[in-house]
Specification:
51% helix; eight-stranded mixed beta sheet; Spore Coat Polysaccharide Biosynthesis Protein SpsA, Chain A; alpha/beta
Length: 388
């Protein structure tokens, strides 16, 4: 029993430490070794594109989004706009139709999904009406920089690049501790993705802004998300998914923990499949850096929920074995107590907030797993009001 507990303790501890500390440090070192490898761009490349916005009951932001996308700096004869309304029951469709009528010179279409099945299904349906060479996906509450389309297209410099992800910038970082913690997470994750894409391929995209060639689009199961599922699919085909962080989308993060928690639960609705979506990823001889990237950036992170539980239980069993196990056990208990303290006191201490935010993220993974196992995982998303 003691040997088993030690094995479980060290494996779980490694997963946690590697996911949160080891991999981020290692990827920076690897990036330094490849510092001469730069993102290639060709601004003369201007293929036809469709900017698709998926919306469900987005009456609060859809007009701002429409005004945003029609001002994008790209040849007018090569850009179309497609609003895929996922069975909206508020004034979203009415606002879009009115905008189209008032701007007949803009190539804007509204595709109305009759049965709500979630964002991915709406993308799947609307995609079948697209005739342009490339498809750009963006969320209704994500405001695009005017040069974002030019930047995304400029990064498609070779036939093996099938996907380009943009950069998400949080605009309300200083509004609350929650939005600040989320912004910090995105900043660090964007830095990792930039290195991954520069070396070979990223492991996940960014739902706020990304592009793919229309012919390479996948009709995924509605429970899946394109931004997390498409890059691994391309990587396994020998294609590349990269990041061009000069293509920017601006968005609000959740300002209250309830909003961010709900969003993270939705993101984890297929967490078990994402741990290892395809066994071929383990073939490091064929997929090289991508195997390393996925294990560190995705697999280990998607195992945090179970790793924290196992390391705590195994540590409790070993607590009398040596002072080391006693220190690590009470260190864990203290960590969780600090998170509880932050939850109760609503303290503004940034270190307590980071601990609390991390614990909320782990709990969201547990809820995601529970929803999967009980059949409650759904492809729908409920927008966080503080992000609108």
């Amino acid at each position: 029993m003691e040997l088993v507990s030690k094995i479980l303790f060290y494996i779980s501890a490694f997963i946690i430490v590697w996911a949160m500390v080891g991999y981020p440090i290692s990827i920076k070192l690897i990036g330094f070794l490849y510092k001469n490898r730069k993102l290639a761009k060709d601004y003369s490349y201007k293929p036809s594109v469709t900017v698709m916005v998926v919306a469900h009951n987005e009456e609060k932001v859809i007009l701002e989004k429409l005004n945003n996308i029609v001002e994008l700096d790209y040849p007018k004869n090569k850009i179309e706009f497609l609003i895929a309304s996922d069975n909206s029951t508020d004034k979203t469709n009415e606002i879009v139709k009115k905008f189209i009528k008032e701007h007949p010179e803009k190539n804007i279409r509204l595709y109305e999904v009759r049965e709500r099945k979630g964002k991915t299904n709406a993308q799947n349906e609307a995609h079948k009406t697209v005739t342009t060479e490339y498809l750009i996906m963006t969320d209704a509450n994500s405001m695009m920089d005017k040069n974002s389309v030019k930047e995304l297209m400029a990064a498609f410099t070779s036939d093996d690049i099938a996907y380009v992800s943009g950069r998400l910038k949080i605009v309300n970082q200083d509004v609350s501790d929650v939005s600040n913690a989320e912004a910090s997470y995105w900043d660090s994750d964007m830095a990792i993705r930039e290195i991954e894409g520069r070396i070979q391929t990223i492991t996940a995209g960014n739902g706020a802004l990304y592009a793919c060639s229309t012919k390479d689009y996948y009709d995924l199961n509605p429970i899946q998300c394109h931004d997390s599922a498409m890059p691994p699919l391309y990587a396994l085909q020998g294609k590349r998914a990269i990041a061009n962080h000069d293509a920017v989308a601006y968005e609000k993060a959740g300002e209250v923990i309830e909003d961010e928690f709900s969003r993270k639960v939705r993101m984890n609705r297929i967490i078990l499949k994402h741990i290892l979506p395809d066994v071929r990823i383990l073939n490091i001889y064929k997929y090289q850096w991508f195997s390393y990237f996925y294990f560190g950036h995705r697999t280990c992170r998607y195992l945090l929920w179970i790793s924290h539980l196992v390391v705590l239980i195994s540590n409790a069993i070993l607590i009398t074995d040596s002072p080391f196990y006693m220190v690590t056990f009470f260190g864990q208990v203290l960590f969780y107590l600090l998170a509880l303290l932050r939850a109760i006191t609503k303290s503004n201490n940034k270190y307590l907030t980071l601990i609390y935010y991390y614990c909320v993220t782990i709990i969201a993974q547990w809820v995601g797993v529970y929803n999967i196992l009980t059949g409650k995982a759904k492809p729908f998303w409920e927008k966080a009001e503080s992000t609108r």
